[in-house]
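Hey team,

Sharing the DNA recombination protein RmuC run so nobody has to redo it. Sequence (531 residues) first:
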Amino acid sequence: MPNEFLLPSAVAASFLIAFVIAWLVAGSRAQKRLQEELLRADRAESEQERLQDLLDMQRDEYEGARARLAQIDVEKGRLETRLDHYAEQLDAAESQRDLAHRQLENRGVELHQAQTELATAVERRDQLVERLHERQQRLLRAEEQVERLRETHSALESEHTELRTTLAQKQEHFEEQLKQLERSREMLKKEFEVLASEIFERKGKAFTELNQTSLSALLNPIHSEMKGFKEKVERIHEQETAQRIQLKTELEHLQKLNRDITDQAHKLTTALQGQKKMQGNWGELMLENVLEKSGLRLGEDYQREVSINTEDGRLRPDAVVYLPQHKHLIIDAKTSLMAYTRYVNSEDETERLTALAEHTQAVRDRINELADKDYYRLPGLNSPEIVVMFIPIESAYVEALKYDDTLYQRAIERNVLVATPTTLLTSLNIVRQLWRFEDQSKHTAELADRADKFYRKLNAFLNSMLDVGKKLDQAKGSYDRALGQLTDGRGNLIKQASEFKDLGVAVQKELPPELVERAHLELERPPSEPE
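Structure output:
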């Protein structure tokens, strides 16, 4: 064994080295070197002993290692047996693995196909979800637009109800005024009759004809004035009744007219595709149609294509509607519908969306263009800051609002009111009602003015009648005093005139016999009888 021969060889080598050293140090240094070598030999011996002990320990370890190696060999045999068994199992597992691998590859191909189909389905689903979301947004915007239209309709209905209530109140007020005037006329008539009767009875038959002539001269103008006043009130009442009937009829036909206008717009949409000039003319024609159906009168209630010169050039709004109190409302009908016609006629969804976006942008650009014209600053026009932008097709505005639900608010912020045939016809009917109320207010003012004039004239007549009565009383007193001077008393003028005749004075004509007789009766009256 290697370790058994290693230690003796080392010892022999040590002795050999010591001998060689001793031999080499022979001479003068031999003794010294010998001592050193002896010391070294001692150290080598000690080292040998240590190495021997180490060798013994290594021998023991070697024996233990051999025993362990034998155990390892036994264990190795068992492991090799198990390894052979495991190798067989591994071969079987590898066969199964290869089979599973082939199956996995097949499953991978199927999985790839399924993943491709799934990706296609997911993409299709995302497209459907996006379209569904878009449809939901459009539906939501449409519902919001419908809600706004409902609110507008409710506001118009409320305004219409308020106008009808105001009209009814004014009519009731007019009727009450008419009744009051009738009652006043009857009372005045009775007072005139009583007053005239009292005056006639008090003044006597001598002034009957004179009083009758004077009263006729005074009463005939008042009677004529009252007759005209009554006819005016009755005419106003008849006009109010006719206007209420006409308003009811127009409200019943308003929805039908709106449907007719919308149907006409849809019928002409395809024919006007791509013809911008024809679209502009047709929009103005639709505006003219709405103006005519609103009941407004051309030249009196509105003007078409009024030309106005400005510093920047000439402007020509499509229509100027006259409002009460010398105000004006500007209407513009020049809205491009080319993109909208493409949107309506296209069958491709992408082209439809592109055309709808262009149509919405065209409406938005027209709003900004109208807002920048500042019609309300034009000389000769007393217009509010809002200008009406007329779109002749109802659905064209609705689709634009569906695409951009902020369009209406932006237009209002730019002082532009977008109107369709339905809303414009309703607004123009309100304008016509405002004119009717203005006319009624003028008639009411005229009626009040005539009533005031009648009252002042009646007051003057009554004061004149009182003055006539006073004058008649004064004249009657003067008459009675003058007659008394003629016939009353013993020295009256009739008696003195009769005495002239008795004295032989020649007279051409006799005195009135009734006065002479009365004077004699006065003379024959007993002195105790009062005069």
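The mean pLDDT is 71.

Ping me if you want the raw files.
A.
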